Each structure stands twice: as C-alpha cells, then as structure tokens.
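Need residues for this backbone.
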C-alpha cells in the first residue's frame, strides 16, 4: 500500500534527521565551550523527541489534531506496553529507587493532569479540548522537570538511569566529524521537515482510504514508528545484559512527550480530544501506575511474567481499540 510506504519513508527521514541534528548541534555546542552536561540536558534530551515533536506541530498546523493526539499518547503507551515489555522479557531489569521517588510520580502526575483536562464533557458538558492555557500549564510542569534534572546533572549523580542514558548519548554524538557539524544541522532540519511532511500527509491519506480515524493511525502506526529508537535501544541493552537504563530512557521520553511535545502542538493549534481519547489516556495512566506496585511488591525487579503481562495488555488494548472504533 502506497500509504504504508510513504509513512515508513517519512519515519525513516525523521529518525535520520533527528540523529544528524543531534550530532551537528552537539559538535557546535562543545566547540563553543558548552559543557557536556548542558549539551546532554538540552540538545540530546530534546533531540530524542524530535520525531514526535515535528509530526505533532505539522499535524496541528494542518488541523490534524486527532493525529497529533494519537501520536503522543500512542507513543507513551507503546513505550511501556511494547518497548518496556519486550526489553524486560529478554532480560529482567531492576527498578531504581530514584525513578519511583521522582520521575515516575512526575509522569503519573502529568498523565493525570492531561486526563483531567480531557474531562470537559464531564465537568462542563462541552467537547474535550486542550487549549493554550492548558498547554502553558503542561509546559510549566516541564520546566519543573528540567530544573530537577539540571540539579542532578550538576551534582553529577551518575547512578541515575535517566542521567546515565543522557550522558551516554552525549558521549556518542560528540564523536561526529567536527568539520561537518553545520552540514549535519542543516541536513537534519531538512530531513525532519521532509519526514514530518511525508508522515502527516500519508497518515492522513491512510485514515481516509481505510475510513478510520486519524487517531488510530497515530496510535498504532505513527506512534510505534516514532518510538523505534526507544525500542531498538532497549532491546539492544537487554541483549547486552544491561537493561537497567531502559526504564529510565522510557520514562524520560514519556515525560518529554507529555509535557513538551503535546503542549507545543496545543500552543500552535488547540487540540480537540478525539473520541476514545480519554480511554487512551487512562490506559497510559494504568501502565505508569503498574510500575509502582511492581517496585514495592516485586523486590524492585521487573521480571518476565510482568513483562509478558505488559505485552499482553498492550496487544489486547490495541485489538480492542481498533475493533471498537
């Protein structure tokens, strides 16, 4: 199908563009004397969410808010149900206390806040909608998250999984060819725009051809595609018997999606919550909340039975969501 090929090409361009932009920007920043800590906190951390961000902004600008919503929420659900489930099924992972004390509660709060924002029909009898004021609230929470992470990075807490993941990515991109740094930046921006344009255009065309909502295409096609870096990274880490960073990587990515990518689209063009969107948010909330009892009752270890339960829950949800649309 032409639409599938178009979406696949668009996502490939998005991933290549994000990689090029991160590499070039990191080179420029380090050459100007910016510390690797700041590079990791800003360029690398933001760069890993660039595919979702570009798709969402272009979707919002074109009025495809269903696709924008489905991309963010679908990515967050896929990161826990599919990515984390697959990684922990390959190699059980330990859950670090810092994640339970701070990152997971913040992600839980962010998802809960977005869910409450989507309950306009319950509270006011109006269509659920995330406007500019709600987007500003989410961005303010994002700045709180940045403040906490910046404090940890300045204190050099290397045992923090999220910080270690950012630090390792910073080291990796800093090895790019220095003389090509500006070319990488320009090339990366061009690829991001081209990939985002293709993805949005063909995802919309797929929804029209199959006579389904753009939300479903965002939830299960675009979202999984833009989550490929997390999936590949987590599986490789599990195969190499070092899966502990996977959870920190996933939680950090989901926080960026919820508190930065989603409100950026809302600031450009308010997001109408599509039919079934509240259920999608509740599913995301359940996946995040399920980690906490695993930590306290499962000796801080995410084993294969729980991982397979996560994968099974994601598959059941996907089948039900598609069949009930």
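Answer:
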């Amino acid at each position: 199908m032409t639409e599938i090929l178009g979406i696949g090409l668009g996502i490939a361009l998005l991933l290549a563009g994000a990689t090029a932009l991160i590499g070039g920007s990191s080179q420029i920043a380090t050459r100007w004397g910016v510390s690797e800590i700041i590079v990791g906190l800003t360029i690398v951390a933001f760069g890993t969410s660039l595919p979702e961000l570009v798709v969402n902004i272009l979707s919002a600008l074109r009025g495809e808010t269903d696709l924008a919503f489905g991309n963010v929420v679908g990515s967050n659900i896929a990161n826990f149900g599919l990515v984390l489930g697959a990684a922990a099924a390959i190699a059980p992972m330990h859950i670090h206390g810092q994640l339970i004390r701070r990152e997971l509660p913040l992600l839980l709060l962010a998802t809960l806040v977005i869910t409450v924002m989507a309950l306009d029909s319950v509270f006011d009898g109006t269509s659920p909608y995330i406007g500019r004021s709600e987007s500003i609230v989410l961005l303010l929470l994002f700045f709180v998250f940045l403040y906490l992470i910046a404090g940890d990075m300045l204190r050099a807490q290397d045992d923090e999984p999220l910080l270690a993941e950012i630090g390792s990515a910073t080291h990796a991109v800093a090895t790019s060819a220095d003389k090509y740094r500006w070319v990488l930046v320009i090339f990366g921006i061009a690829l991001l725009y081209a990939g985002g344009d293709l993805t949005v255009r063909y995802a919309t065309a797929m929804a029209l051809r199959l006579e389904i909502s753009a939300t479903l295409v965002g939830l299960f096609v675009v979202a999984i595609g833009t989550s490929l870096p997390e999936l590949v990274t987590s599986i490789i880490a599990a195969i190499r018997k070092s899966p502990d960073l996977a959870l920190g990587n996933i939680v950090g990515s989901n926080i960026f999606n919820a508190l930065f990518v989603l409100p950026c689209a809302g600031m450009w063009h308010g997001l109408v919550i599509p039919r079934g969107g509240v259920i999608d948010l509740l599913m995301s909330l359940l996946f995040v909340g399920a980690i906490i009892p695993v930590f306290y009752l499962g000796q801080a270890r995410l084993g294969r039975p729980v991982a397979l339960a996560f994968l099974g829950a994601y598959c059941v949800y996907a089948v039900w969501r598609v069949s009930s649309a």
